[in-house]
Amino acid sequence: MTEDEDIRTGRHCVFVLHAHLVFLTKYQRDVFADRHLERMEEIMRDVCADFGAELREFDGAGSHVHLLVSFPPKVALSKLVNSLKGVSSRRMRQEFPELAAHYYRASRLWSGSYFAGSLAGAPVAELREYVERQNRPARGAPQRVSL
């Protein structure tokens, strides 16, 4: 996608807003397999669409996910994040009950914290490449992310 294709228009504005988001699992436990990540991407695309946002890139590993989201100025990023985390946690726990075994006394999938970075001046193509490089490691290979 070229830079011109990233420009979006609203009723009274023209904008290019992107955020790089990283969500960690509770206790940074490795809980996701490829099938979980595939379904997670579908869920997060749907949530973004409900906000008028677009999930441009998605990738992850056992203990975290990376998202590149394009969103309109009317969307408060914190509200989008809360919805992404809440809806994905609820649906993943419903569809994959085996994930509950990883929650020690907590019914939450995600850590309470998250990373959100804006792309002020950074080309979207560079960030897309970064997210794509976060390939899912081979099973059993631990990968940790610190916030």
UniProtKB/TrEMBL annotation:
Q: What is the lineage of its organism?
A: Bacteria, Bacillati, Actinomycetota, Actinomycetes, Streptosporangiales
Domain (Transposase IS200-like): give its ranges: 14-134
What InterPro entries does the record point to? Transposase_17 (IPR002686), Transposase_17_sf (IPR036515)
Which protein, by its recorded name, is this?
IS element transposase
Q: Which organism is it from?
A: Streptosporangium roseum (strain ATCC 12428 / DSM 43021 / JCM 3005 / KCTC 9067 / NCIMB 10171 / NRRL 2505 / NI 9100)
> Which terms in the Gene Ontology molecular function aspect does this entry carry?
DNA binding; transposase activity
Q: Which domain of life is it from?
A: Bacteria
- Gene Ontology biological process terms, A to Z: DNA transposition
